[in-house]
Amino acid sequence: MRFFKILAVIIVFLVGAYAASMYFFVEENKKFQIEKEIDYPLDKVFSQFNSLQHFTRWNNFFTSSQTMDIDYYTPYEGKGSAISYVDTKNDRGGEMFIRYENLNKTLKYQLFEGKNENPTLVDVKFKAISPEKTKIIWYVHTPKLSVLKRVENFWTEDRFAENIEKSMANLKNVLGNKVEKDNQMAAIKYDSLMIEKEEEKILLGINISTSNKKDALYKNVVMNYNKVYNYVTMDLGKKDDEFGYPMLMTDADNYKDKEVSYFIGIPLSKKVGITDNNFSFRTINPTQDYVMYYKGTYAGRIRAIQQLIQKAKKDEMRFGDIRQTFIERPTEDQNVNMKLSLSVYK
C-alpha cells in the first residue's frame, strides 16, 4: 500500500511539474510564417489557391490519404467557398473556409480540425517576382491549446513546413502540366514543318497490335486510349491537370502495313505502383524531332507523316518512331487534333 502511495505522489508531482513547465515556458499557440517561390505566373498560381477544388488536388494535407472524403460547397471559388472532409482510416475530419480574398494578392483561410471550435488561421500572400515567378508567404496562427496538450506546439511548425514542402512539389507538377498544355495550344501552327527538342517523358500505357483496315485502326486507338485514361483517373486517382497529353508511339512508316503495332500512353510526372499487368511504363529519352501539327480525319495524318519522312531523307537524317500526341482526346467519329513528331538523328 505504501508503495502505491509513493507512486501516486510521484505521478502527481510529475504531472504538476509538466503542467507548470508547459504553462510558464511553452506558448499556448504558435505564430509563424513560411516563404516559398515557384516558377509560374502569379495568376496561374493564385487560381490554384482560391479554388478549393484545385487546392485539395495538390495540397499534401488532402492528397496524402487515399481514404479522404471531401464535400465542396458553393461558391466553389473565392470568398465564402468551403469544404468538409472526413478521413475514416486516419480518424480525422474537419472544415475549411476561405474568409477573405483580394484577387492575386491575399487569401485568408480558416481550418477547423476535429471537434476543436477554435480554428487555425492561415493568411497567404502572393507577390509576382517576375512574369514567370511568384513568391508565396504563409502566415499561420494556431488555436490555443490547453496546458496538457501544449506540448504539440513543439512540432506544429515543423509539421506545417513539411506539408508545404510536399504540397509545393505537387503544385509544380500540376502547374507544369497545365502551363505546358496552354503553351502548346498557343504555339500551334498547323501543317507547317518545324524542328523541336523533346524532353524526357515517362508514359504509362499499353502495347497493342491491331488491323490497319479503314476506320478499324482509329476505333482501336480510341478504345485503348479510354482504357488507359480510365486506369489513370479511376484506379490511380489522377486528375486531368496532373498529367500530359496522351501519346501514341509507332514505327514511322507502318501506315502501309496490314497490321499495326503501337504503344499508347499518358505522361506522368513519375513512376507509380501499378497492379494491372496490362499496363507498363515507357521512358522517352530527349530527342530532336521534325514536327507537324495536324487537324482532320485520322486517316489524313498519313500525308503529314510522309512529309516528315521526306524531310528526314532529304536532310540525310536517320529516323526512329513517329509519336502522335493528341492535343484533343481521340473520340470516335470525330476529327483529330494532334502533333506528329518524328525523332531524327545522324
UniProtKB/TrEMBL annotation:
The protein's name in its UniProt record: SRPBCC domain-containing protein
Family per similarity comment: Belongs to the AHA1 family.
SUPFAM superfamilies named among the record's database cross-references: Bet v1-like
UniProt xrefs under Gene3D superfamilies: 3.30.530.20
Activator of Hsp90 ATPase homologue 1/2-like C-terminal domain segment(s): 39-175
